[in-house]
Structures are given as structure tokens and as C-alpha cells.
Specification:
This protein is mainly α. The chain has one domain: MetI-like fold. The protein contains 11 helices and no strands. Helix 3 runs antiparallel to helix 8 and helix 5 packs across helix 6. It is globular, with a radius of gyration of 24 Å. The relative contact order is 0.12.
Amino acid sequence: MSYATTEQTKKLNLTKTLPFHLLIFALLMLLWEMINRLGIADDLVAPRPTDIVMAMADIFFIDQTVWHHLASTFAKALLGAFIGTLIGMGLAITAVLNETFRKYIKPWIILMEATPRIAVGPIFVALLGFGMSSAVALAALVAFFGPFVNTYQGLMDVDHEEEELFRSLGASKFQTFRKLRLPTAMPLISAGWKLAAASAFSGALVAEFIQASEGMGVLISQYVTMLTMHYAFAALLSVTLFGYILFKIMEYVDYRIIFWRDDQLMYSISEKKRNKMRAPA
């Protein structure tokens, strides 16, 4: 089964199951609301869904508190994800092309991944100071591992017969890398990009919880300190929603970059290139 057929099947299944998921979600929200209104649960611990919705309307449209903090967190997370992805992919590519480097770098990468991020946060703050630099550094550290592992695994998992064919045709190591390894690894590499973007947000938020003057971590901490839990839930839900939007954007970028996985898109792009070549100069 081709990738395009698999994607079409997934979309069809999602269309069928989406109403049931929405129904289950609505029933859970209704149950949560009724439990609070009947006094079974404490509003301070689990605020009513209606109060959370009203708080979201306030921070987004009335008071508009959330926008500045969202922009700050997004800037830290995206910059950290970009830096972490560049370093991770760079080290992975070097490890694939150089066996000696691969032998010595892998244990250190695993050691770094085993280190708890929340424990590293205060050290980064002490080294880099209060502000954006420490948050970006922690976000980059958290985002680094996904691109490294996915890029390394994707580049190493190459069909040996295809690689042997390239060698028999006299292809250089760089040509084999560019024409065989990289295209084959792109699905895994793009999955590493998504992991980096998602994990960078957790790194930025951890840094903001430890120290910061702005950002969603600061906003959530302030709401919790003031015991306005419906606003804290609203801020947390805001991060989740915008993180989901970013993930869907990256999925679309992934769809456009790795166009050969979709038969229709590949045909469309090939047709455009053919028409361009046929056009008179």
C-alpha cells in the first residue's frame, strides 16, 4: 500500500470517528460541569468548563493579556527548536559519514538525554542569566534529541542493495548521501522536526517557571499564585491549542517538502516542471 493510499485511509477513518470523539468530549465536559455545580468537586482544584471558556475569552479578547506572553513563549520555543534541530541533524549527519566520530559521540548523546531537563534548568539560569538566552538554551537542549535520533536512524537504515548499486555506478560518498540516503531518510527526519517543535515548548515553559518576566509559564504561575485556577487552565489550554496549530502547520510543510510520498502531489509537481521545460524561452 502506498503512502498516499495510507493517508487517504487515515483521513476517511478520521471523518468517520470525529463525530464520536466530539460527542464523547461534550459528554465529559457536561459531566465535569454538573459535578462542579452539584458541589461534588471543588472549583479551586477543578474549575467549571464554562468558567474556563469565559477566562479564555477574557485573556484573548477583552483584557488580551495572553498575546504578549504567547508571543514570548513561541519565540523562545521556535528559536530553541531551530538551534536544537540544526545541532542534532549536524551531529547525526557527521556520525553517519564518519565512523570514528560515531563511535565516540553516541554515548555522550545518550548521557545528555538521560539527564533530567528540570534539573538542568537552574544550572542554565545560573550560567546564562535571567532572560531569553537561558530559556532558548533549555528549549534547544530538549529539542535536540529527536532530530538527532531520527536523522541518524533514517540515514543509517538504507537498503544495502541500493547502496551497492550506487557504488557500482561509481557514485561518490557525497552523491550516495544526497541521492539515496537523504531522500530515504526524509520521512524520519521530518518526524524529528515535529518532535523538536513539540518538545521545545516544554523546555521554554520549564525555563519560564524557574525564571522569567514574561511568557506563558510566568502567566500560569501568576494565576496559580492568585488561586484563579480557571485562568490558569485557560492559559494552559491556550498553549495546547497553539501548539496543536503549529504541529498541523509543520505537517503541511512536511507534506509539501516530501512530495514524493503522495502520488497526486508528485504528479502535479512533475507536470509543472515538464510544462516549464516545454515553455519557449
